[in-house]
Design goal:
The chain is α+β, with helices and mostly antiparallel strands. The protein contains nine helices and seven strands.
Amino acid sequence: MKLRYRLIISFIIVVAMPLLMYGTIIINGIRTGNELGIPENAPPPIVRQRVADVMISGVLIMTLTSALLIMWIYQGILRKIGILVAGAEKIKEGDLDFSVEIKGKDELSELAVTFEEMRQRLKLDAQQRLAAERNQRQLVSNIAHDLKTPLTAIRGYSEGLMDGVADTPEKRRSYVTTIHNKAEEMDVLLNELTAYSNLDTNRIPYNFKRLNIRTYFYDLSEELRLDLGNRNGELVYYNYVDEDAMFVADPVQMGRVFHNCIDNSIKYAKEDETLTLHFGIWPEGEFLHIEIKDNGIGIAPKDLPHVFERLYRGDASRTSAGGSGIGLSIVKKIVEDHGGGVEVSSRQGVGTTVSFKIKKFTPGEEKKSEQDTDRGRRRSNRRA
């Protein structure tokens, strides 16, 4: 019952009970010719007794009425306030592992529902904050661990150059190339650290443009071919999209997507086999289907469902390949912000395939394309 109804009923009872009691006495007195119902010429003791009876009856009736009203109000108000106060004290002490259960349809019950929703939100925020702190510590630990390997190599090869160990032009070139490659590995790790900061705060900067598919991906394939060439790998590129086909994307962030995929393929290449990547693009209705397929060591079935999770690293990556564990999560975030999707399939010992679907640009539908892109970005931001 609503509190205002309880108060109205209580007021009516408090006013009505004395009126009822004394009204009865007055009516009885009118019938008998005496307000208190005392017979005429009654002796003083009888008069005193009658007055005392009336007063005691009035006190008992008022006491009983007050007690009943207090119990009723206590049940409806004070008990619920006590539960809310106890819950507030627990929250003040940092304890969020409890629940507020108050049933009813009055204002305090509605307040209790809001209070419980607040507690659940605070608990979720606390859990997310702790998870973010754990992720940050894990990321820093991963990168600090993975920086040791290239730093050790750079130190060793630079000391070899200074000590004259590399005494032929071929050795010196080999040493310098190794130092350069290790420095690039360090640069990738530091870039991932910056990207994680942007990813965690949903602040990846985008500058969307209309791009010619053939031109953009040809230039990108040449960059990827150069990266692979420096790592003794090769790229097979094919594009079956019409020459005038366009799509809307941020060229820098989209380039990061494919560079991250190439970096993963390089990390998980087989030691005894030349790394070969097939980079293909073809139309699929209103979408582009883009595929990067390598012949690396593959991904274990138990790790495959988790490849897009932040900071997840399978056993192989922990023991040999290294990496921060956020490369593919960045890929997924950027592609979804472009209104597309990404999937990964893999077979151990055979290789891994990363497949993308990105919407093509259709003349006359520029506004719709921009809305779809914005919608995909907002949806991805809510999940992140």
